[in-house]
C-alpha cells in the first residue's frame, strides 16, 4: 500500500503562521494575546509540553507566563491562583496542566477557570456548547486532529470513524467533533469486546488508549486513515504512540507519526484558541 505520513509538525507550522498574522493585527490594535500555564509539581514529561507551549507563544509574539506550584500545593491555593488569572487583563487564556496531584479535585479547578479564558475547552460550559454545536473553545487535541484531517484532504462526511478511548479530554470530544462533520462514529474502550471487529471497519481510526504500540496492523482496514494520539516511552525510552507504526503503515493509507503528529497540532490549536480569546475581548 502506498501510504503517506501525515506531517503534524509541518501542518502545525502552517496553522501557527496564520495565528501569527492575527497576533500582529491584535497588537496593532493594542492587545497582546496572553497565555498563563499553571504547572503543579515537576513531572519531566509535563515540563517538556509546558516548555513547548511557552516557546511557541514567544515565537508568535504572544505574552506567556508560567506559574509553577509545588507538588504539595493545596486546592485552595491553586483556586486562588486561578482567580487571580481570571482577573488579570493581560491574560486571555488559562491552562492548568493535567493531571493534578491527588489532594486536588480537578473538576473544581476546571470549573473555576473563567469560560472566557478556557482555551483548553475543558470547562463544563465549553463542553456543553461544543455538544450542541455552539461557538466555543474546542479542546486542543481533538480540534488539532480535525485540522490534520482537513489539511491532509481527508473528507470525513459519511466515513466510519472509530475512536478508541473515551476520556473527557480526547476520546469523547473527538467523537462529537467528527459527528458534527457528518462521520458515523463508534466509540471503543477498555471494556469493548472484540475490538478487532470494530477497528477493522474503520475508515478513520483514532487511537487514544494510553498503551504503547497497542494497535498494530492487524487492527487496521486496508487504506484506513490512522491518527495516533498516544505519547508513551517504549522499552528503550524512545517516544512512541499507541499505534505500532511499523506494522500499521503497511496497511494504512495515511498515518500520523509520534513524535511529529498530533502533539505539535495540540500546541498549534492552543495558540489559535488563545488568539481567539484575545480577539473576543477586543470585540466586547
Ligand atoms: N490542561 C491540559 N491541557 C493539555 O493540552 C495537556 C495537559 N493538560 N496535560 C498533558 C497533555 C499532553 N499534551 C501535549 C502537548 C504537546 C505535545 C507535543 O508537543 N509533543 C511533541 C513532542 C513532545 C516530546 O518531545 O516529548 C510531538 O508529539 O511531536 C505532547 C503532549 C498536552 N496536554
Ligand atoms: Mg486529582
Automatic annotation (TrEMBL):
UniProt-listed InterPro entries: Aminoacid_DH-like_N_sf, NAD(P)-bd_dom_sf, THF_DH/CycHdrlase, THF_DH/CycHdrlase_cat_dom, THF_DH/CycHdrlase_CS, THF_DH/CycHdrlase_NAD-bd_dom
Known pathway: One-carbon metabolism; tetrahydrofolate interconversion
Keyword hit for Amino-acid biosynthesis: yes
Residue span(s) of domain Tetrahydrofolate dehydrogenase/cyclohydrolase catalytic: 6-120
Binding site residues for NADP(+): 165-167, 231
An example molecular function term from Gene Ontology annotations: methylenetetrahydrofolate dehydrogenase (NADP+) activity
Record's GO cellular component terms: cytosol
Tetrahydrofolate dehydrogenase/cyclohydrolase NAD(P)-binding domain mapped to chain residues: 139-279
Catalysis performed (reactions): (6R)-5,10-methylene-5,6,7,8-tetrahydrofolate + NADP(+) = (6R)-5,10-methenyltetrahydrofolate + NADPH; (6R)-5,10-methenyltetrahydrofolate + H2O = (6R)-10-formyltetrahydrofolate + H(+)
PROSITE patterns: THF_DHG_CYH_1, THF_DHG_CYH_2
GO biological process, one term: tetrahydrofolate interconversion
Pfam families: THF_DHG_CYH, THF_DHG_CYH_C
Protein EC: 1.5.1.5, 3.5.4.9
Statement: the UniProt record of this protein carries the keyword Endoplasmic reticulum: no
Similarity field: Belongs to the tetrahydrofolate dehydrogenase/cyclohydrolase family.
Subunit structure: Homodimer.
Function according to Swiss-Prot or TrEMBL: Catalyzes the oxidation of 5,10-methylenetetrahydrofolate to 5,10-methenyltetrahydrofolate and then the hydrolysis of 5,10-methenyltetrahydrofolate to 10-formyltetrahydrofolate.
Protein name listed in UniProt: Bifunctional protein FolD
Taxonomic path: Bacteria, Bacillati, Bacillota, Bacilli, Bacillales
Amino acid at each position: 500500500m502506498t501510504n503517506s505520513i501525515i506531517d503534524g509538525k509541518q501542518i502545525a507550522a502552517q496553522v501557527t503562521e496564520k495565528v501569527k498574522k492575527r497576533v500582529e493585527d491584535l497588537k496593532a490594535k493594542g492587545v497582546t494575546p496572553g497565555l498563563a500555564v499553571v504547572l503543579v509539581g515537576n513531572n519531566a514529561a509535563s515540563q517538556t509540553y509546558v516548555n513547548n507551549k511557552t516557546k511557541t507563544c514567544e515565537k508568535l509574539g504572544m505574552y506567556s507566563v508560567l506559574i509553577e506550584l509545588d507538588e504539595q500545593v493545596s486546592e485552595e491555593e491553586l483556586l486562588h491562583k486561578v482567580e487571580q488569572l481570571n482577573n488579570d487583563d493581560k491574560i486571555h487564556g488559562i491552562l492548568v496542566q493535567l493531571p493534578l496531584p491527588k489532594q486536588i479535585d480537578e473538576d473544581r479547578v476546571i470549573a473555576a477557570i473563567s469560560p472566557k479564558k478556557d482555551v483548553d475547552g475543558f470547562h463544563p460550559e465549553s463542553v456543553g456548547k461544543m455538544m450542541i454545536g455552539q461557538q466555543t473553545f474546542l479542546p486542543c487535541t481533538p480540534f488539532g486532529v480535525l485540522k490534520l484531517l482537513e489539511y491532509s484532504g481527508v473528507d470525513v462526511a459519511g466515513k466510519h470513524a472509530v475512536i478508541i478511548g473515551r476520556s473527557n479530554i480526547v476520546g469523547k470530544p473527538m467523537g462529537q467533533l467528527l459527528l458534527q462533520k457528518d462521520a458515523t462514529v463508534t466509540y471503543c474502550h477498555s471494556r469493548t469486546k472484540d475490538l478487532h471487529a470494530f477497528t477493522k471497519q474503520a475508515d478513520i481510526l483514532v487511537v487514544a488508549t494510553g498503551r504503547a504500540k497497542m494497535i498494530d496492523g492487524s487492527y487496521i482496514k486496508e487504506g484506513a486513515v490512522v491518527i495516533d494520539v498516544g505519547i508513551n516511552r517504549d522499552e528503550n525510552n524512545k517516544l512512541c504512540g499507541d499505534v505500532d507504526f511499523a506494522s500499521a503503515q503497511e496497511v494504512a493509507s495515511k498515518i500520523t507519526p509520534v513524535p511529529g503528529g498530533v502533539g505539535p497540532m495540540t500546541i498549534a490549536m492552543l495558540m489559535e484558541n488563545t488568539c481567539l480569546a484575545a480577539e473576543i475581548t477586543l470585540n466586547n
